[in-house]
């Protein structure tokens, strides 16, 4: 199987979005990797079942660690119940921005009283049939997030972004983050990777090109202050309370910003 050249960051995220499929695909000839992939897959499945049935704290953390080394887009899906507690009615009309957005949009559309749209920052070449259907309906679209988003101001009650801002330099962040705030009414939720957590992927980096710029929480907070974006303290509190109650520990950094008033 040969990898087509393309956006290097997309490749990195691709591997992250579908960790086990990727492992099995690219390593079919060497069975140890296949075994590891299958074992991890089984762990994830077991963890997921526990999660569904409200499993114990340790199980949740195990899943969180597995997923944490892969993708924050997966983390968004896990966080939906907590986000609903924190944002209530603001989860009514959601835009997700990030790789593999179809997976998040499909999940959100299954929630009651939730409309969802998605922006895929890279390409949709590998989209499956259900994703292609979302694209045909205009629910998901590909757009370069370094440029203004193709939506009117205040089009969505909430904007959630994952695995996308990590790849932007401050120069582009300065344009993109205000854009996310512009199209939202009640806020922007940022899921960003933790520096150091993606260590497991280092061996694969030569294949993917340059890594994401994972920034510390103090970097982000300084950046928000610099660019006059306010964190929504009330929501932060609600989110933390809901997370504690459900023993949910995000594997990514989660920030809650206010939209422009
Ligand atoms: C981004 O915007 C902030 C605030 O306006 C500014 O201080 C900073 O220099 C900008 N950074 C870049 C790289 O343009």
TrEMBL record:
One of its GO terms (molecular function) is methyltransferase activity. InterPro entries: CGR2/3 (IPR044689), SAM-dependent_MTases_sf (IPR029063). The keyword Acyltransferase does not apply. The keyword Mitochondrion does not apply. GO terms for biological process: pectin metabolic process. Keywords: Membrane, Transmembrane, Transmembrane helix. The chain crosses the membrane at residues 33-50. This is Methyltransferase type 11 domain-containing protein. It comes from Cucumis sativus.
């Amino acid at each position: 199987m040969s990898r087509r050249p393309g956006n290097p960051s997309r490749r990195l995220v691709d591997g992250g979005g579908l960790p086990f499929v990727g492992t099995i695909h690219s390593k079919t000839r060497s069975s140890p990797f296949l075994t590891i992939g299958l074992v991890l897959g089984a762990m994830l499945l077991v963890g997921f079942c526990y999660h569904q049935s409200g499993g114990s704290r340790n199980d949740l953390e195990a899943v969180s660690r597995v997923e944490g080394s892969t993708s924050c887009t997966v983390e968004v899906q896990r966080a939906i119940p907590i986000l609903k507690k924190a944002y209530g009615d603001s989860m009514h009309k959601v835009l997700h921005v990030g790789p593999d957005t179809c997976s998040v949009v499909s999940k959100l559309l299954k929630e009651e009283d939730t409309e969802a749209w998605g922006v895929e920052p890279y390409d949709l070449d590998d989209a499956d049939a259900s994703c292609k259907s979302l694209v045909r309906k205009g629910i998901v679209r590909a757009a370069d997030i370094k440029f203004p988003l193709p939506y009117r101001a205040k089009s969505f009650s909430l904007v959630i972004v994952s695995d996308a801002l990590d790849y932007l330099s401050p120069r582009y962040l300065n344009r993109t983050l205000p854009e996310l705030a512009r199209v939202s009414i009640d806020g922007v939720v940022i899921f960003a990777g933790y520096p150091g957590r993606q260590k497991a992927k280092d061996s694969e980096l030569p294949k993917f090109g340059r890594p994401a710029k994972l920034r510390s929480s103090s970097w982000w907070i300084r950046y928000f202050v610099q660019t006059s974006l306010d964190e929504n303290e009330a929501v932060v509190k609600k989110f933390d309370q809901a997370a504690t109650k459900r023993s949910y520990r995000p594997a990514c950094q989660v920030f809650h910003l206010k939209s422009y008033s």
